[in-house]
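Justification of resources, computational component.

The compute hours requested in this renewal are based largely on the per-chain cost of generating structure records like the one below. Each record pairs the submitted sequence with a full structure-token output. That output is archived, and it is also reused by downstream analysis tasks.
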Amino acid sequence: MTEKERMLAGKIYDASKPELLSLRQKAHRLCKQYNDTFEEDEEERTKILAELIPNMESGGYLQGPIFFDYGVFTKMGKNFYANFNLTILDVCPVTIGDNVFFGPNVSILTPKHPLRYQDRNPYINADGKTTCREYGAPITIGDNCWIAGNVTILAGAEIGSGCVIGAGSVVTGKIPDNSLAYGNPARVVRQITEADALKYKNELLS
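The structure output for this chain reads:
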């Protein structure tokens, strides 16, 4: 197994290996270029995103600034929207469905680190480079979700379709379809139903 294959499979890997270092540096450079553009630089932004996130479908908009570890290991469905300060550390695959909206300061964090400092602290590998032991788990978000501001989604989390995650939540596990969930850790408060339709919100429509 290559180090990239180990990483994507959720096994302990060495992030200092040349293939991974090159991919990260490229992603960080593209993020910097994107963050230096203006909103009206649509052509340039589109070009950068096509290289940074080749698995991004049509209709997406990233307000910026954005921060990706790799980008190429993230898949975004149609009509994705992210407000300010999107951070995605995609050492394992990140899969986002169609029509998913993010508030500001959303972080998707697939990496994990050993609990014992003896395993976590930096060490010198066989190539004489300083590195550390890291692994991860994939994150999946279904279609038609709203992820509110300052939400953190941790390694291994699975959010079903049609969910709303309340502001400031930390998602650590599985959230079933059509759930309203919030808190730290995020817990399902109730299901989202027909009773939540805007047509019943007279105070908003009058």
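The first strand starts at residue 13 and ends at 14. The two ends are 62 Å apart (CA to CA).
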